[in-house]
Design goal:
This is Biopterin transport-related protein BT1. Keywords: Membrane, Transmembrane, Transmembrane helix, Transport. Belongs to the major facilitator superfamily. Phosphate:H(+) symporter (TC 2.A.1.9) family. By secondary structure, the protein is an all-alpha fold. The protein is 73% helix and 0% strand. The chain is built from 22 helices and no strands. Helix 4 packs across helix 7, helix 16 crosses helix 19 and helix 17 runs antiparallel to helix 19. The longest helix has 33 residues. It is globular and about 70 Å long. The two termini are 27 Å apart.
C-alpha cells in the first residue's frame, strides 16, 4: 500500500496527489455539515418535511449542470490557465458560504438566505468536482503511466474515508457543538484546499488559443448489439445503412468546416474566440449525446431516478420525532451506509460485472423494493412484535440499501465511461452525472409533493406507510423501460 502511494507521488507529484485526495475527502466529509443542515431546517426553521426537502432539492441543483463548468473551464482560460483559477473560484464559493452561515445567525435562521448560501456552496463543490476530474484525466493522459488509472481508485478511497469520518464526527458535533460552530469548523477544509491550490503548477496556454473539440462518429464507438461485439470487416452492411452513415458524416463534416471557416483569425477579439470555442464544444457534445447508443441508456438511468419519489427527508423526521433516534446514532447509520457502499463496490467488481446489465438492473430494483419494505415494517412497528430494535432496522436497512444501490450505480459509471467518445470524455461524463443528479433532484420534488398530498407533516405520520408503499410500487417502473439498455451489454468494457 505504501509502495503504491509512493509510486503515485513519484508519477504525478506530491502536491497534485494531495490536492486530489483533499478535494475528494472534503466531498465525502460534507456529510458532517449536511447532518447539521438537516437539523437546522427541522428544529430551528421549523419547516415541514416537504418544505425541508424542497429547500434541499433546490440547494443541490448546481450538481445537475456540471457540464457547464467543464465547458467553460475548457474554453475560457483565466490568466492563461484552465483549471487552477476555476478551482480557486469554486473553493472560495464554498469557503465564504460556510463561513457566513457559521458567523451570521440571522442568515442561517432565514429560510431563503440559508437556501441561497447552500446553493452557492453546492455550486462551488460541483465546480471543484468537475475541475479536479478534468485535472485527473489530463494528468493520466500526460503521464501515460501504468498507475494513471489508480488515481480514480485513490479518489474513491479518500471520498469514502471522508464520508465515514464526516458521519461519525457529525453526530458527535451536533450533540456537543453549537450549529454555527459546526459550519465554521467545516470551513477549515476549504481553507486548506484554497492554500493547497497555490502549490499546484499548471502550464499556461496562449491567450489566443482555444479548445477545438473533435468530431464524433458513433460507429467508431459502438457497433452491433452489445459492447463486446465487433462487426466483421467482411460483413455486408444492411441495405441503406452505409448510405445513411456516409451522408450523416458528410453533412456533419460540412457543418464543422463551415464553423471553422467562420472562426476569427488569430488577431480577432478574445471574447469572439471564446464564443466560437464554446459553440464548437456545445455542438460536439450535442452530436455525441444525440446518438441512440448513448441517449437510450442515459434515458433509462434518468427514468430510473425520476420515477421513484424520494422520501428520505420525511423518514429523517420520523426517525427523530417518533423513534427519538439520537444524532450520534444517525451519524453511525450513515457510516454503515458508506461501508455498505464500499462492500457493494467490492461485490460488484468481484462477482457481478460479467452479468448482463438488463438482468443485473432488474435484480437490483427487485431487491431495492424489498429493502424499502423494511421501512414499512419500521413505520408499522412490525419489528417490535419480533423483538427487533428500531436501531437494528435502521442500521441494516441503511447498509443494505446503499450496497444494492451500488450494484446499479457501478454499471452506470462503467457504461458511461465506455460510451464516451475520445476527446470529450470529461465533459460528456459530467453530462451523464448531471442527468443522474437532475433525476435525483426531480425525485426529491416528487417526494416532497407526495408528502404534501398525503398530509405527512411534522407530528403527523399516519400516511407515511402508504407513501412508502407507493415508493415500493414505483421501484418496478424502470424495469419496464430496460429495453433502452443494449441487450448484450455487461459491466465490462472489453
Amino acid at each position: 500500500m505504501i509502495a503504491w502511494i509512493k509510486q503515485l507521488v513519484i508519477t504525478f507529484g506530491a502536491s497534485f496527489l494531495w490536492l486530489v485526495c483533499l478535494i475528494y475527502f472534503t466531498q465525502g466529509f460534507r456529510s458532517f455539515v449536511w447532518t447539521a443542515v438537516s437539523y437546522q431546517l427541522k428544529d430551528k426553521l421549523k419547516l415541514s418535511p416537504s418544505a425541508s426537502q424542497f429547500v434541499t432539492s433546490i440547494s443541490f441543483f448546481p450538481w445537475s449542470i456540471k457540464p457547464v463548468y467543464g465547458i467553460i473551464s475548457d474554453c475560457i482560460p483565466v490568466n492563461g490557465r484552465k483549471r487552477v483559477p476555476y478551482l480557486v473560484i469554486a473553493t472560495l464559493l464554498s469557503l465564504f458560504s460556510w463561513a457566513i452561515l457559521g458567523s451570521q445567525e440571522s442568515t442561517r435562521n432565514s429560510q431563503h438566505q440559508l437556501m441561497i448560501f447552500l446553493l452557492l456552496q453546492n455550486l462551488g463543490s460541483a465546480m471543484a468536482d468537475v475541475v479536479i476530474d478534468a485535472m485527473i484525466a489530463e494528468a493520466a493522459r500526460r503521464e501515460k503511466a501504468k498507475y494513471a488509472g489508480d488515481l480514480q481508485s485513490i479518489s474513491w478511497m479518500t471520498m469514502a474515508l471522508g464520508g465515514i469520518c464526516g458521519s461519525l464526527f457529525g453526530g458527535y458535533a451536533l450533540t456537543n457543538l453549537q450549529m454555527g460552530n459546526i459550519f465554521l469548523l467545516f470551513s477549515f477544509l476549504p481553507t486548506i484546499q484554497l492554500l493547497s491550490c497555490g502549490f499546484v503548477t499548471e502550464s499556461p496556454i496562449s491567450s489566443l488559443n482555444f479548445t477545438v473539440f473533435p468530431s464524433f462518429n458513433a460507429s467508431e464507438i459502438y457497433s452491433g448489439s452489445g459492447p463486446d461485439e465487433e462487426r466483421s470487416s467482411n460483413e455486408a452492411p444492411k441495405p441503406g445503412s452505409l448510405v445513411r452513415k456516409r451522408s450523416h458524416k458528410i453533412s456533419k463534416k460540412k457543418y464543422l468546416e463551415s464553423i471553422k471557416d467562420q472562426m476569427p483569425e488569430k488577431e480577432g477579439s478574445l471574447p469572439l474566440k471564446w464564443f466560437w470555442s464554446l459553440k464548437m464544444a456545445g455542438y460536439t457534445l450535442f452530436e455525441a449525446f444525440r446518438q441512440p447508443i448513448i441517449l437510450r441508456p442515459m434515458g433509462w438511468f434518468f427514468l430510473s431516478q425520476v420515477t421513484i419519489p424520494n422520501l428520505s427527508t420525511v423518514k429523517f423526521y420520523y426517525q427523530t420525532e417518533v423513534l427519538n433516534l439520537e444524532p450520534s446514532f444517525l451519524g453511525t447509520s450513515r457510516v454503515i451506509g458508506w461501508m455498505g457502499l464500499l462492500f457493494g463496490t467490492f461485490i460488484y467488481n468481484r462477482f457481478l460485472k460479467k452479468i448482463k446489465l438488463r438482468k443485473l438492473l432488474t435484480l437490483s430494483h427487485v431487491i431495492l423494493s424489498l429493502t424499502t419494505l423494511l421501512d414499512i415494517a419500521l413505520v408499522s412497528r412490525l419489528n417490535v412484535g419480533f423483538d427487533i430494535s428500531d436501531e437494528a432496522m435502521v442500521l441494516f436497512g441503511s447498509a443494505l440499501s446503499d450496497a444494492i444501490h451500488q450494484f446499479k450505480v457501478m454499471p452506470f459509471l462503467i457504461l458511461s465511461g465506455y460510451l464516451c467518445p475520445p476527446g470529450i470524455e470529461g465533459t460528456l461524463f459530467a453530462l451523464f452525472m448531471s442527468i443522474s443528479n437532475f433525476g435525483s433532484t426531480i425525485s426529491s420534488f416528487f417526494g416532497a409533493g407526495l408528502a404534501s398530498v398525503l398530509n405527512i407533516s411534522s407530528g403527523s405520520f399516519h400516511n407515511l406507510s402508504f407513501g412508502i408503499g407507493i415508493q415500493v410500487i414505483c421501484t418496478y417502473i424502470p424495469i419496464v423501460f430496460l429495453f433502452l439498455i443494449p441487450k448484450d451489454a455487461t459491466g465490462m468494457t472489453t
